[in-house]
Design a protein that fits this description.
Layout: H1 2-29, H2 33-44, H3 56-76, H4 80-112, H5 117-126, H6 132-141, H7 148-177, H8 184-219, H9 227-244, H10 249-261, H11 268-293, H12 299-326, H13 333-341, H14 347-352, H15 355-358, H16 364-383, H17 386-392, E1 405-409, E2 417-423, E3 441-447, E4 450-452, H18 454-457, E5 465-471, H19 475-482, H20 490-495, E6 499-501, H21 507-514, H22 520-523, H23 527-534, E7 544-547, E8 550-557, E9 563-569, H24 585-597
Antiparallel strand pairs: 1-2, 2-5, 3-4, 3-5, 6-9, 7-8, 8-9
Helix pairs in contact: 1-2, 1-11, 2-11, 3-9, 3-10, 3-11, 4-5, 4-7, 4-12, 5-7, 7-8, 7-10, 8-9, 8-10, 9-10, 9-11, 12-13, 12-16
């Protein structure tokens, strides 16, 4: 017995270490990390090194706990500003998008396999959600800086679509296992009613649980080292409580993380670092366990049809769902195409494919094998192309600020305040002589190994270390002072045009100098107001607006979308790739008007399109 414990521990830790080391390969070559982890699991499994792991209940239990940890971390790291910016399109994708993908994929599955309608929809539900970890690892590895709205949409969708997919999958498994074959109307009514009850309970418990976590951390005088473990344990308590009350535990734990992460939680910096590590470990363990559970020798029977279904999901089901869900939100065609393409399937789909086995379904193993192959197809086809596609579509934008060296330190009794340690970077505003604001309280400067008062340090120089005690509301403002000024490269300078304009200057100056054809009403506005009006009322960093022979580019905005800086280019840049599909309703209307009245297209966010003058 003792020997068995040592052997299992040896093999388990060896696999985790191998997965951790394999991440170096992924960072070096941009390989989808999930693909490596699953590959290690397959290599160690029955058809590889011979580890026989066929316990569906244990695999699902481990995967569900790991997913709860990952979702809490995802919610904890989602800023409320991103939620305000992209909640509507992301939630549309996470609800209607998941349902539509399930139906479209289910129809294709029914006609390409011997599955019944309910089994086909079950497989569709299992592969309907995207994998957040896979998507954002690839964006980070490729140093891909996307527009805020696109990135926020992908992030929130990936965090919120898992609960819906899990609900659909488990409900369909229960219906098939019960041997019921309900009419379509009855099935739809049951699904909708059950969905609202399930999600409602999960949402209430998640919000209350998140507030309880914040209150307990603030009220209890716990040791700093214990706080991260305490918070993570409470998050799992929220997950379990919601599930025990027949609610969505996964939605509850995500919302609890969202509330806690946006509540100025004491020790938030160390909490986030702890959760990053635990989340990595959870991902590795989940992927390895799911890889061990699979049996590649069984894939041959289902391989051709599964590959075909995987390609259908990539090129038909996901694009159609994304297009219909994003149509009301004025995404450009390039942005819609990119959101469609990066909907990678991952561990959640494989985890959900275990539920037919738990339910004792006749075709449970076949459904699992099909889902596993579909995930592999998604990772191989989409995973290697995320970076190149973003560049081809012209969606990569320069970083808003340059290099920044910053450390957060915790002090006893410093609730709602942070001690920040900045290293002065060459070319940053403070290195150029700009003073630190009075609301910040710089207390110490370390220069060449010598410490001195800030008042005695004089002008800060590159390499100085500055310690500032500041309210937790203001660190982002300080970041801009200590970061090198952007643009930070020649490519960035090309992106933002020849020179900068003051958005507070009157738009009549723009008309007088360049004659872009502004309307009389627009001439009464400032340049910034005119741009915001043409961009739908809210500007975003890197928005581009073509006016005649010039192009205006938003260089910087505040948190409310007010334009702070504008770049001007004399060479308007057309989109790198003209996407023929994904027309929004507004673009369809513009095309129809152009056919009959000869008017040009309206401005599209992130694209350099011609804008007609409004003479009325």
């Amino acid at each position: 017995m003792n020997q068995t414990i040592y052997l299992v521990t040896l093999v388990g830790t060896a696999l985790v270490l191998a997965a951790a080391f394999s991440s170096l390969i992924a960072f070096r070559f941009g390989t989808p990390l999930l693909l490596l982890f699953l590959g290690l699991g397959l290599l160690a499994g029955t058809d590889g090194l011979g580890i026989d792991f066929d316990n569906a209940q244990l695999a699902y239990f481990v995967g569900a706990l790991a997913l709860a940890v990952i979702l809490f971390d995802s919610g904890f790291g989602t800023p409320i500003a991103a939620l305000r910016q992209a909640a509507a399109p992301a939630l549309s994708l996470a609800t209607f998008g998941v349902a539509l993908t399930t139906v479209l994929f289910g129809v294709a599955t029914f006609y390409l396999t011997d599955f019944t309608w309910l089994e086909s929809l079950l497989l569709g539900a299992a592969v309907s959600s995207t994998d957040a970890a896979a998507v954002f690892f690839l964006l980070r590895v490729g140093n891909i800086q996307l527009r805020d709205r696109v990135r926020s949409t992908l992030e929130i969708e990936s965090g919120t679509n898992d609960p819906i997919a899990i609900f659909l999958t488990i409900t369909l498994v229960e219906i098939v296992a019960a041997g019921a074959d309900p009419e379509a109307e009855v099935l739809l009514v049951d699904l909708v009613a059950g969905f609202f009850v399930h999600m409602g309970i999960g949402a209430v418990i998640g919000l209350l649980g998140g507030m309880a976590i914040v209150r307990l951390v603030e009220r209890l005088n716990l040791d700093h080292a214990l706080v991260p473990t305490f918070v993570l344990t409470l998050s799992l308590l929220v997950f379990a409580a919601a599930g025990a009350l027949h609610g969505s535990g996964f939605l509850a734990v995500y919302l609890a993380g969202l509330v806690a992460g946006n509540s100025n939680l004491r020790g938030a910096g160390s909490q986030k670092r702890f959760q990053d590590g635990v989340s990595w470990l959870a991902q590795i363990i989940m992927f390895l366990v799911l890889g061990l559970f699979a049996t590649p020798s069984e894939f041959a029977v289902i391989l051709p049809v599964s590959v075909a279904l995987g390609l259908f999901l990539i090129f038909v089901a996901r694009p159609v769902s994304v297009w219909l869900c994003l149509a009301p939100f004025r995404f450009s065609r390039a942005e819609t195409a990119f959101v469609s393409w990066v909907g990678l399937r991952g561990a959640v789909s494989i985890l959900l494919a275990i539920t037919p086995l738990l339910g004792g379904l006749e075709n449970g193993r076949t459904i699992f094998n099909a889902a596993f192959v579909i995930v592999l197809v998604s990772l191989i086809v989409q995973g290697w192309t995320v970076g190149p596609l973003a560049r081809r579509l012209g969606l990569i934008v320069p970083h808003r600020i340059g290099p920044l060296e910053k450390f957060e330190l915790e002090l006893p009794g410093s609730a709602h305040h942070e001690l920040l340690a900045y290293t002065v970077v060459a070319g940053s505003p403070v290195a150029s002589g700009e003073r630190i604001p009075r609301w910040a309280r710089p207390s110490l400067v370390v220069r060449d190994g010598r410490s001195m008062k800030y008042q005695d340090a004089g002008r800060l120089a590159a390499g100085d270390h500055v310690y500032i005690f500041v309210s937790d509301k203001y660190p982002k403002l300080l970041d801009r002072l200590f970061a090198s000024r952007g643009p930070v490269s020649h490519d960035d300078a090309d992106f933002f045009g020849a020179f900068a304009l003051d958005p507070a200057r009157p738009a009549t100056e723009l008309e007088a100098n360049y004659g872009p054809g502004l309307s009389d009403a627009e001439k009464k506005l400032t340049i910034g107001q005119m741009m915001q009006q043409r961009l739908g009322g809210r500007a975003e960093y890197a928005d581009r607006l073509t006016l005649g022979e010039i192009e205006l580019i938003v260089r910087d905005v505040d948190e409310n979308g007010k334009i702070l800086s504008v770049g001007l280019s004399f060479e308007p840049s057309p989109p790198k790739v003209r996407v023929p599909a994904f027309l929004s309703p507004g673009e369809m209307a513009d095309s129809i008007r152009a056919m009959f009245f000869g008017q040009r297209e309206r401005p599209v966010r992130g694209a350099a399109t011609k804008v007609p003058a409004d003479n009325g």
